[in-house]
Design brief:
The chain contains 3 helices and 7 strands. The protein is an alpha+beta fold.
Length: 151
């Protein structure tokens, strides 16, 4: 992360009203408006997730991701990884994912780490150690596939 960017993580209870608004706006701006995907973003899972926020030097949220434990499956799911278009391709996604993977591996050493990737982004996740599983599927009009972290 550069000096002009700050990454923090918080539980849902630690998020401020401004954090929650900024997260919802970023996810809406990218996933629903930019990608033209109509889906239920506010899924009731934020309350049980750890949230990673990347802010620029002015305090604007430019990147985000969350993870949550799925205890019944002994898995941790990484979800809602998103960046504003103007900061994509600058390595911030890799920094975010590496931090999330390190934190998850420490907290849940016996759990599998999974995510659902838009198929066009699979190469990005391959570089971080993920492999596809299952068949591609439609999620909000965008093709996705399950991915497993192969450490």
């Amino acid at each position: 992360m550069t000096a002009s960017m700050l990454m923090i993580y918080k539980t849902f209870e630690q998020l401020t009203r401004d954090d929650i608004y900024a997260i919802a706006k970023l996810r809406q701006d990218v996933f629903i408006v930019e990608q033209n995907s109509i889906y239920q973003d506010l899924d009731g899972l934020d309350q049980n997730s750890i949230h990673y926020l990347i802010n620029d030097k002015n305090g604007q949220l430019v990147g985000y991701g969350r993870y949550r434990e799925v205890e019944s499956l002994r898995k941790v799911k990484i979800e809602r990884v998103v960046f504003l278009s103007e900061v994509r391709g600058m390595g911030k996604g890799e920094v975010l994912l590496k931090q999330m993977l390190a934190d998850i591996s420490r907290s849940y050493p016996e759990y599998e780490i999974v995510l659902s990737s838009q198929t066009y982004a699979c190469q990005f996740y391959h570089r971080l150690g993920f492999v596809e599983f299952g068949e591609p599927y439609d999620d909000g009009g965008i093709e996705h596939i399950g991915m497993l972290y192969s450490q």
